[in-house]
Specification:
six-stranded mixed β-sheet, 31% helix, Rossmann fold, Hypothetical Protein Tm841, Chain: A,domain 3, globular, 8 helices, 2 domains, alpha/beta
Length: 329
């Protein structure tokens, strides 16, 4: 294993310290327990938006803390859920009097720990569960996983909260954003969790893993490696079948890298995905390409499509100032 680390046990701590220093104009780091919060206090009465999860997905979630998005993010160890005390401390620190909304990816550890935190919290709170991964059926025993579509949900809800939406309205918008979003990913290699020291699964030189999540787990099928056009058509077809967008529908097309795929390849994937939906009369109104929801050093990518109406488009375009996303401010 070759990684730029001093020790496995100090990796998260040192990384968070560097992140906070690099973006000291936007965020501040709390260390006991660990969470990242907005540096500038929110408007009194604003709903506080909090998310979190295991590290290794950067810039998700800490990179989305700031104006127009998250008020705080709780990072766990690599691929390990943060603890309820982190979530509780973060909620109490950023509460502005409007209640707290937790954005939770649908993974068992995250769901359980956020539920415990909500039960312990004396502040009014609610949760939105993100479940955009269409590689799993809706009837799956634990539901669909929350993956790259989490970014869209956090942006929509964060913008609404910034504009003064109350807790119930933020919940409704979060559920709406999740409902109109679908994602699917493919891996060309596994990732190496520092504490494990070796890839979480193996692939041959001529193999790819279809339908992967973001925690180094296998997908639903190991397939022969093929050309980019065929790969994109496979991913996009599953997404299209799930969302069933009609001709003329406006969408956000998000191509997300898993950490080790060059932007040159990600933009090629975007071009192919844009052709796929363009041929079906879909209007790509907004785009986002890059590494936003990663899986440490996995090679591969995911495609996310979000159906846009006037309300969601306006919230997507609303000002945001975070380490990873910034526009209109």
């Amino acid at each position: 294993m070759k990684k730029l680390i001093n020790a496995v046990d100090t990796l998260l701590e040192e990384s968070l310290q560097g992140f906070a220093k690099a973006h000291a104009d936007i965020v501040q780091l709390n260390t006991a327990p660990y969470f990242v919060r907005r540096k500038q206090p929110a408007t009194p009465g604003k709903v506080a938006i909090i998310s979190g999860g295991g590290s290794g997905h950067e810039p998700l979630h800490t990179g989305f803390v700031g104006l127009g998005m998250l008020d705080a993010a709780c990072p766990g160890q690599v691929f390990t859920s943060p603890t309820p005390d982190q979530m509780l401390a973060a909620a109490e620190a950023v509460d502005a009097g409007g209640g707290v909304l937790f954005i939770v990816k649908n993974y068992a550890g995250d769901v359980m720990n956020f539920e415990i935190a909500a039960e312990l919290l004396s502040i009014p709170s609610a949760s939105v569960l993100v479940s955009d991964d269409v590689s799993l059926p809706k009837s799956h025993s634990t539901g669909r996983r929350g993956v790259a579509g989490t970014l869209f949900v956090e942006k929509i809800v964060g913008a609404a909260a910034e504009q003064g939406a109350d807790l119930a309205r933020c919940v409704a918008l979060g559920e709406k954003a999740n409902r109109v979003t679908a994602s699917m990913g493919v891996a060309l290699s596994s990732c190496t969790v520092p504490a494990l020291g070796k890839p979480t699964f193996s692939l041959g030189d001529n193999e790819m893993e279809m339908g992967v999540g973001i925690h180094g787990e296998r997908g639903h099928a190991t397939l022969p490696l093929t050309d980019a056009t065929s790969i994109v058509e496979h991913l996009a077809s599953h997404i299209d079948q799930d969302l069933n967008p009609q001709p003329g529908q406006s969408v956000l097309l998000h191509v997300n890298g898993f950490g080790a795929t060059p932007l040159m390849e990600l933009y090629l994937v975007y071009e192919l995905a844009a052709q796929f939906w363009g041929q079906r009369g879909i209007h790509i109104a907004r785009s986002l390409v890059g590494n936003y929801t990663t899986s440490i050093d996995m090679a591969g990518c995911s495609i996310t499509l979000s159906l846009l109406d006037d309300e969601l488009l306006a919230l997507w375009d609303a000002p945001v100032h975070t380490a990873a996303l910034r526009w209109a401010c």
